[in-house]
# Entry
Amino acid sequence: MGQYLPVPIVGLRALSSVYSWTALLWGAMSTLRTLKALAAALALSLPALPTTSVLAADSVSLPFDDGAAVRVVQGYNGGTHQNESRFGLDLVLTGADTSGAAVLSPLEGSIAWAFEPGDKTGCIEVVARDGKSSVVMCHVILDRPFKRGEKISRGQRLGAVGAPGEVGNNGLAHVHLELHRGGRSSDGVPFSLPDGMLLEGVDLPFTGAVGENAGATLVSTNALASAPAASTVSSPVAAVPGGTRCGRGVSPRFTLGFAELKTRLGDAMGDPLTCEFADPSGSGDMHQLTTSGLAFWRKSTNTPTFTNGSEHWGRTATGWVEWSGTSIDPPKA
# Structure
């Protein structure tokens, strides 16, 4: 038989230390498994927390209530979307009846112009609070007459989608949506950066293709909201830095082509609120605010024009013309 050799004290201590660390390690692993199991059980038992969607500053909402699934049935540059309306989108709800659906303002701002409820193509334009962009919506039966300059909340109800065959929708209940730069109805831009804004955070670029972005689906993050607490009609002059824009000792009056417009239109043109001033967006046009709308001279066409927001009058090289709609330029012959 072999001789029994005692284990040195140092060896016993080292062996005891190994046993201790091993026990601690197994204990920690066991505790970790217990915590994981507990966390899983809690996750199953607790209700899911609601998520809040925050719209980016460079994005505009859809004109429908929160959670509505929306499909683009006619995209850019196709069908009736030509010329000034080439960046328009026709929108319908999926999984719900579009006809009669509530139409909400896609942004916070003020009314540029609007047709009377049930009149013509049921269009309304809302200018963003910063004045850098605006949206036009058509084929809507507005709830009431809206006044120029009236403040609007994002999500405020404007009306309802017209039934098939109403307000110029060509038999399909839908909302026609356009984005404009600088609140100018002639400067349509796509829902894409850098010229325009995103639509619900989605980039819808324009490459020149016919019917581009038709078939795209989006989900609205807009939400029904009440009107601003003090919904008032603001003075057009307040929106123009420098007040009347007249020189010292000079009062607002119509001259040259604007005077001709006044002679022809009379009371419909109203009285001048400002002197003539250059278009703040840098187009080279000249503007003059009146008590009932805007007179402007188009540098590109040499056309003095007046608009009350929905109706337009101008003197072209071929004579006087009158038209209505979102375009500030006369229709081409």
Remarks:
- Helices lie at 9-45, 256-265.
- The CA atoms of residues 78 and 211 lie 4 Å apart.
- Confidence is low (pLDDT under 50) at residues 1-26, 34-54, 231-242.
- The longest strand covers residues 175-181.
